[in-house]
Each structure stands twice: as C-alpha cells, then as structure tokens.
Amino acid sequence: MTKSQNPTRIILVVDDEPVNVQLLKRKLEWDGMKVLTASNGQACLDIAKAEEPDLILLDVMMPGMDGLEVCQKLRENELTKGIPVIFVTAQNSKEGKLEGLQAGAVDYITKPIDIEETTARVRAQLKYLAINQENVELTRRLGESRRTAAVGALTQGIAHNLNNMLGVVMGYLELAKANSGDPEKVLKNIDRVENTGNRIVGIIKQLSTVAFTTRLALHSMSVDRLITGSIHRAQEKVGENFTVTVLNDIKEKTIRTNIEAFEDALSKLLINAWESYDSSSVAKPIYLRSKTLEDGSALELIIEDQGSGIDPELEDNMFEPFVSTKNTVGVGMGLTIARHAIRTLGGEVYIQPGAQRGAVVTFDHPLTKETNSHT
User: 289: which strand partners?
Assistant: First the structure.
C-alpha cells in the first residue's frame, strides 16, 4: 500500500533533549500520526533510510553531527532526499535560518517550542506533501493515458490502412485473373501486388518499432555519434547520400538514452525533411543544430529545411497515423513513429513553419542530473 493510500503519516522527531522528544511525540500521536524518535544525527539517518518517514523534525544543535550536516546527508541519499525536513533550533538569527533553508529544510521552528504552532506547521507540510504526491500520480496517469491513446490511434490507423492495401492486392489479383491470356498484363499486375506487399511488410516493421519502444534500456553515448548514426540510417533508408549540415557545438557531450530509439526517431525526422523537397529539386539543404537548454534540462535538436513546407490542411494532424502529402497507400507513419519513440524517451517533438519557407522540427530529449554533472 502506498503512502498516498494510507492516512497515517510517519513523523521522525530528532532531538538530543528527551523532554522535547516526548512533548512532540505525545502531541503528534494525539493528532493521529505515527512518531519515530532519534537522539542523534546518525540514528536519524539510519531510521530515515529504513522507515522513509513522511517528515522529519530535526534539531539543529546536537553533539557530534549537527542538524545541518544531517540534512545534507539526507539530500545526498536517493531514499531520503525527498523527505521534507523542518529544523528546530534555539537560534533565531536571519543568517541561521537562511543557512538551514539552503541546507534543504522546508521550514524553521525556534525554541522554546510552541506545540500548537509546531503541529500546525507539520500539518501544513503534510498537506503540501499530499498535493505533490497527487500531482505526481496524476502526471503518471496522464502519461499512461496519452501513451494508450497514441497506441490506440496508431493501431486503428494501421488496421484501416492494411485493409485498404489488402483490398488493393485483391484487386490486382482479380485483374491478373481477368487478363490471364495476356502474360504482359499479368506480370504487370503481379509487380503491383509485390510492391503493395512490400509496403505491408514496411508497416509491420514500423509496428514492431512501436512495440520495441514501450520499454527502453538506456546507455551512454556522445551527441556527435548519435547524430552521425542517425544521418547514416536516414541515408540508407532513402538510398541516397543526401547532405545534412550539422551545427553541433556540444558534440563531446554524452547523454543517456536508448540508442536505437533515438537514432530511429531522428532519422525519420531527417527523412521527413528530405522528402519535403520536390523530386526535381537539385539542392535539398537540410540543417541540424544541437544545443542544451539554458536550464540544462534537455538536449534540443533543431532540423530545418527549405522544402514545400507544411500543408495548412494537415498542420493540426501532422503526427496522426497515415497523414501524408503523398497520394500513396501505406505511407505517413514516419512522424507518428518518431513522436512515439521520442515521448517514450521522455522528450517531445514540435513542427512549425519556417521563417520564409520549409519547416522547423524541434526534438527535445531530457538530460539527467548525472548527465549534466559529467559534461
């Protein structure tokens, strides 16, 4: 049972003065909370790791390890870094309070302890904690709903498109039967059946990609190698060594990602840019820029082309399955698959018209704290 389902909150009271501990313990238990106690910093750390309390009331002035050091150690541990800490101290200076808040405390209570004020502050922090947990749960459910809706729409689109293509296959076979006396027409219709069959195989392969990207293993790789691999993959898929001008100032930066999903998504976005040009176009400039967002939260890849741009009739549905400017059955899944992979990686993709012509695609990939600290 999760804590959000259990109304009983656990409070850890840490103080080297037994009178203060018993006073707080009695009052908090009277208010329906479960209270754990510790008389020194090390005991606090041990109990916090083992019990994961909802909140810690921590005395600042203790022999040995003081409250500031304890709070810092709590923040360094994955199991305890999210536990809110309220400092309790006899110091009432502004500098002391600032030092405590900078160490990671969420509130400050001065001695002598006012029991009613202390319990009110504890209740307030527990309310904040409950709201935060509800928000986390809501975000998780929304993410699951979004993924379910996306996969549902994709599955429906695939089924509809496969039915259309099977209808095309049956039609060509009927034509082959009707022209059985004309070998040339029979071979022509068989070729058409083969081409349609190849497109069906392509859709099934892309469906396998969707299934693959539902659970991803993460590995470390430089941005430069990821970009190079994506370009090579895109060139292989279109059968042409088209040029991509890369403007990458962070090529040595290493990120944690699923390499297959990342390269597959980026290659599809590059192919989309290449296909935006008319077949008669001699020059097909494509620019790929990479940078880190100012707050360090994400890697941002920007793909720009000067092709035909975004059809106004398709602008609101660019990522829907089988939405395409090509008048061919069995195309239009590239952007859908790319967005699915990018979202599964925790990122997002956006498309907007270029300043003068073409389109600008932005691919954001989240960066972990570990990534930022090693770059």
Answer: 247, 302
- Choose one of 113, 131, 165: the last residue of a domain: 113
pLDDT digits (tens, 9 = 90+) for 117-160: 888 888 888 888 888 777 777 767 766 666 666 666 666 666 66
Most confident of 38-47, 89-98, 113-122, 271-280: 38-47
Tokens read off for 239: 């059968």
Q: Which among 313, 318, 228, 312 has a CA at the least distance from the CA of 273?
A: 318
The CB density around residue 169, as the number of other CB atoms within 10 Å, is: 17
> What is the rounded CA–CA span in Å between residue 209 and residue 24?
57
Strand, coil or helix: 53: coil
Structure tokens at 184: 């040339």
Q: What is the CATH number of the domain that holds 52?
A: 3.40.50.2300
Pairing of strands 34-38, 359-366: unpaired
Domain hosting 227: range is: 216-375
Count up the domains in the chain and report the number: 2
Q: Which of 79, 89, 104, 102 is nearest to 20 (CA)?
A: 89
Nearest to 86 by CA among 49, 50, 43, 129: 129
Evaluate whether 270 touches 231 at the Cβ level (below 8 Å).
yes
Domain boundary among 66, 94, 113: 113
Scored b (16 or more CB within 10 A) or e, 349-358 reads: bebeeeeeeb
Q: CATH number for the domain including 344?
A: 3.30.565.10
In 3-state terms, the chain is what percent helix, strand and coil (to 5)? 50, 15, 30
CA–CA separation, 213 and 59 (whole Å) = 48
